[in-house]
Write a structure and sequence with these properties.
With about 60 residues, this protein is an alpha+beta fold. It has helices spanning about 10-15, 20-30, 45-55; strands at about 5-10, 35-40, 40-45. It has a three-stranded antiparallel beta sheet with strand order 1-3-2.
């Protein structure tokens, strides 16, 4: 069991990780980041998945 917060709203995640909400939505749509909420309307996003994407995305 994790002792840290793992699920964030899109606003919280964008602020914490410095990623646009549009990028987060794209990752969710492509199945790269898990989300929770109503079908087609996610309201929470998984921070561990965001961190993995940020580590896998090459910097330009």
């Amino acid at each position: 069991m994790s002792l840290t917060k793992n699920w964030y709203t899109f606003d919280e995640a964008a602020s914490k990780y410095g990623v646009s909400i549009q990028q987060l939505l794209l990752w969710v749509e492509n199945g790269l980041v898990r989300s929770e909420g109503d079908e087609g309307n996610p309201n929470l996003i998984n921070g561990d998945d965001i961190e993995m994407e940020l580590n896998l995305t090459p910097s330009v």
